[in-house]
């Protein structure tokens, strides 16, 4: 992020890394489609399933996105240094989790496209507090100011290819809700029995 010092960027990267774990847990619990209820405040989220360029291991990264005319766009606020950006540039065939399910997809860097600033503004609006934390206000900045503030950002077009049959990890922890419900009922019944004794 070009508008803040390198030391602040490092702090933000660490903060977002911690937040990413929480976001992934929500998707695994089946809550992923619901955490985007307030895009301008919290953000609109999807998950990238990609391959580590060095390790060859699967990686998952939650990111903010905008859907424009049925097309999905994301941005790398830390530019080319973001590990997930490097990974998907090395292996652009990815899988994404969206509110409507898992999709096979292809990632393309379109940073220099004609509608770059218009699209970037919409993605950043859907980034909620994350854009503001990076010193960017997409709601009030002029096109010129936004272009200057995001000069190191990368804009990516996520081309959905087909629904994915591989949903490993997507909602794999939803079983916990009936378990929690059963525990709550048992505790309530035991409490009721104790009170009536």
TrEMBL record:
InterPro entries: F420H2_quin_Rdtase (IPR004378), Split_barrel_FMN-bd (IPR012349). One of its GO terms (molecular function) is oxidoreductase activity. Keywords: Membrane, Transmembrane, Transmembrane helix. It holds the Pfam family F420H2_quin_red. SUPFAM superfamilies: FMN-binding split barrel. The chain crosses the membrane at residues 173-191. It comes from the Bacteria. The keyword S-adenosyl-L-methionine does not apply. Gene3D superfamilies: Electron Transport, Fmn-binding Protein, Chain A. This is Nitroreductase family deazaflavin-dependent oxidoreductase.
